[in-house]
Automatic annotation (TrEMBL):
<feature type="binding site">
    <location>
        <position position="19"/>
    </location>
    <ligand>
        <name>substrate</name>
    </ligand>
</feature>
<protein>
    <submittedName>
        <fullName>PHOP2 phosphatase</fullName>
    </submittedName>
</protein>
<dbReference type="InterPro" id="IPR006384">
    <property type="entry name" value="HAD_hydro_PyrdxlP_Pase-like"/>
</dbReference>
<comment type="similarity">
    <text>Belongs to the HAD-like hydrolase superfamily. PHOSPHO family.</text>
</comment>
<keyword id="KW-0479">Metal-binding</keyword>
<dbReference type="GO" id="GO:0016791">
    <property type="term" value="F:phosphatase activity"/>
</dbReference>
<dbReference type="InterPro" id="IPR036412">
    <property type="entry name" value="HAD-like_sf"/>
</dbReference>
<keyword id="KW-0460">Magnesium</keyword>
<dbReference type="GO" id="GO:0046872">
    <property type="term" value="F:metal ion binding"/>
</dbReference>
<dbReference type="InterPro" id="IPR016965">
    <property type="entry name" value="Pase_PHOSPHO-typ"/>
</dbReference>
<feature type="active site" description="Proton donor">
    <location>
        <position position="10"/>
    </location>
</feature>
<feature type="binding site">
    <location>
        <position position="179"/>
    </location>
    <ligand>
        <name>Mg(2+)</name>
    </ligand>
</feature>
<feature type="binding site">
    <location>
        <position position="10"/>
    </location>
    <ligand>
        <name>Mg(2+)</name>
    </ligand>
</feature>
<feature type="binding site">
    <location>
        <position position="99"/>
    </location>
    <ligand>
        <name>substrate</name>
    </ligand>
</feature>
<dbReference type="Pfam" id="PF06888">
    <property type="entry name" value="Put_Phosphatase"/>
</dbReference>
<dbReference type="InterPro" id="IPR023214">
    <property type="entry name" value="HAD_sf"/>
</dbReference>
<keyword id="KW-0378">Hydrolase</keyword>
Length: 241
C-alpha cells in the first residue's frame, strides 16, 4: 500500500510565486516597464530568462539571490505537513511538478531541511553561467495544446507513473496538490480512486468547478484545502484505513 503525493510548488508549497519574488533583488525592487511588458502568454520561461539577464546586468550575484529566495514564506501548515510526510516516507512517494526552476526549488527546500521529503523534482533546469548569470531552459517539448510551451504536467505525471510501473511500483491512490491553471491537465489524467486537492480560491479550483458546471466533471474526487493542515488531516485518514 503506497500513495503518491504530487505537489505544485509556487502558491502551494510556498505562499508566493518564486519567479516574481526574485524581483526583490532588482534595483529599487522592480523591473523596468519594457521588460515587464515583454511577457507573452505561454512563454513565461523566456520572459524569466530576460529577467535573469537584467539582474545579471545589474550585478545581482548568486548569494544575494539565494538570500532573498530563502525568505519566501511557506504556505500555512505546510511545514507541519512536510514534517508529517517525512516521518511516514514508507507510505508516501512524493514528487514536485513545477513551472519554477531547479535552482530556486533546491535553495528553498534545502534551507528548510525538506529536500529529503521529495523523491523527485520535475521543473525547468536552471544553472549559473561562467559569467554568473542565472539561465533557465524549458523542461521538455510536448504536444499538449492546454499547457504552456515549456511544461505539460500531465505528460510528466504519466511518464513518471509508467517508469514506476516498470520498476514494479503501483500506487493505491494519487493525491494531486496544486493551485494553478497548469495543474488542470494532470488532474484530468487522474482516475476515479485518485484525489485532486485544489487550493481554495485559486485558479485550479475555479477551473474544476467550471468543468462540473459544463457537465464534464473530472473523474477523480476533489477536496479543497486552505491550509496544509487540511491536507495532513486527509492523509492521516488515508493511512488509518
Amino acid at each position: 500500500m503506497k500513495f503518491l503525493l504530487v505537489f505544485d510548488f509556487d502558491h502551494t508549497i510556498i505562499d508566493e510565486n518564486s519567479d516574481t519574488w526574485i524581483v526583490k533583488c532588482a534595483p529599487e525592487r522592480k523591473l523596468p516597464n519594457g521588460l515587464r511588458n515583454s511577457y507573452q502568454p505561454g512563454h513565461w520561461t523566456e520572459y524569466m530568462g530576460r529577467v535573469f539577464v537584467y539582474l545579471g546586468d545589474n550585478g545581482v550575484k548568486e548569494d544575494e539571490m539565494k538570500r532573498i529566495m530563502t525568505t519566501i514564506p511557506f504556505t500555512a501548515g505546510m511545514i507541519d505537513l512536510l514534517g508529517f510526510i517525512g516521518e511516514n516516507k514508507e507510505l508516501f512517494d512524493c514528487i514536485i511538478v513545477s513551472d519554477s526552476n531547479t535552482v530556486f526549488i533546491d535553495w528553498i527546500l534545502k534551507a528548510a531541511g525538506f529536500h529529503k521529503v521529495f523523491d523527485e523534482v520535475f521543473t525547468n533546469p536552471a544553472a549559473f553561467s561562467s559569467t554568473g548569470y542565472l539561465t533557465v531552459q524549458h523542461f521538455h517539448a510536448h504536444h499538449c495544446a492546454k499547457c504552456p510551451k515549456n511544461l505539460c504536467k500531465g505528460k510528466v505525471l504519466k511518464e513518471f507513473l509508467d517508469k514506476q510501473l516498470e520498476r514494479g511500483v503501483s500506487y493505491t491512490q494519487i493525491v494531486y496538490i496544486g493551485d494553478g491553471g497548469n495543474d488542470l491537465c494532470p488532474v484530468m489524467f487522474l482516475k476515479k480512486n485518485d484525489i485532486a486537492m485544489p487550493r481554495q480560491g485559486y485558479t485550479l479550483e475555479k477551473k474544476i468547478s467550471q468543468l462540473a458546471q459544463n457537465l464534464s466533471p473530472v473523474q477523480c474526487s476533489v477536496l479543497v484545502w486552505s491550509s496544509a493542515i487540511d491536507i495532513m488531516s486527509y492523509l492521516k485518514l488515508l493511512i488509518k484505513e
